[in-house]
Amino acid sequence: MRRSYKFLMRPTAHQQAALTACLDDHRALYNAALLERREAYKRSQVSIRYGDQSAQLKEIRAYDPDQAHWSFSSQQATLRRLDKAFRAFFDRVKAGRTPGFPRFKGRGWFDTVEWPEDGDGCRWNSQPEHPSATFVRLQGVGHVRVHQHRPVRGRVKTISVKREGSRWYVVLSCDDVPAEILPATGAVVGVDMGVASFLTTSDGEQVGNPRRLAASAEKLAAAQQDLARKKRGSKRRRKAVARVAALHGKVRRQRLDGAHKVANALIRRYDMIVHEDLRIANMTKSPAPKPDGEGGYLPNRAAAKAGLNNSILDAGWGVFLGILAHKAESAGRELISVDPRNTSRTCAPCGHVAKENRATQAEFACTACGHTAHADVNAAINILGAGLALREAAAA
Fold first, then answer.
1. 233 vs 286, residue with greater confidence
2. Distance separating alpha carbons of residues 180 and 338, to the nearest angstrom
3. Domain Probable transposase IS891/IS1136/IS1341, which positions (predicted)?
């Protein structure tokens, strides 16, 4: 199986300047290749592809000494990144979705450079004889120290460098990673995702919603207000942008850490985990405006929906479910997703479905049989039942 490892880099001031220059030059190559494609089609109706632009790299490197400073393979990866953006654009056109033509990348929108193969312009663990530290060697940058907080398994295939705010990370994509199968426990569980509680199991356990973004709201508001007062292009504004990015980065890392811990706890305890097949992008759409026929609009509760959307995104359901899927695959656990419709309105004991069954956010009271329970626990039991039914149907 394939797995990615992400480690914090600790570059020196000189190496940090070199990494910044590397990003800037690769961004310039990306934008120049995009401009060439646009102009060729606009003027001559000619489509330029990756092979055409990759063949020009030797001439570009001979003409531009800045480009010649970096790995040839990493520049090819940048051109493939542009080609992938165009293929995704044409796929969206064919599917009838909003196309979204590839855009030029500004300084804050190009933060990753990839080396397609370990040993070609880069080398992981480039100083294996060092007694206590790990280094990655990057062409044009040198040996950069890495905070390796866990062992790397499998064969390192690709190496990427990513900038997040003022921090630098190295991301390793490894093939042939051995699975770490956990012993069977014989237990199964259904999981209901929520906002009041982040997660509720069919066993009746609840995991609170830490609301990471809400906890940092005051600091973020102050930092963003400070940013709004700064003049564009000034040094003070760049510092203010860095402060806002650092706060958002901290929230993101806290959310990831919490998701990993909850997923690990579930994977260790249960052989089969059933969750809702959530379409988070659809759930967080803004309501469409409703014209009143007189040049105005009818109330559509957009403000209330925006608050709910923020709570859903702050909970990080998508991040958690992605992490859970990877951990389940590695541990040999079974993960099933089920249709979430009516799971919160159905009585688990008798199966009666009615909107009135859910009296409040937390209380479930069946209008047919009188069964009462916590609404989220009742939903989790229904989710587990749907997952067991799917497994039986697949086995039949």
1. 233
2. 26
3. 183-285
pLDDT at 173 over 80: yes
pLDDT at 297: 76
Q: What is the DSSP string of 271-326?
A: SEEEEE---HHHHTPPPPPEE-SSSSEE---HHHHHHHHHHHHHHTHHHHHHHHHH
Q: Would you say how long the chain is, in residues?
A: 396
Instruction: Give the separation between CA 216 and CA 198, rounded to whole angstroms.
Output: 18
Amino acid identity for residue 155 in this structure: R
Write out the DSSP string of 331-364. Answer: HT-EEEEE--TTTTTB-TTT--B-GGGB-SSSEE
Structure tokens given for 188: 């199964």
Residue 279 has pLDDT above 80, yes or no: yes
Q: Residue 101 has which token pair? A: 């033509």
Domains of the chain: 3-175 (no CATH), 188-212+255-395 (3.30.420)
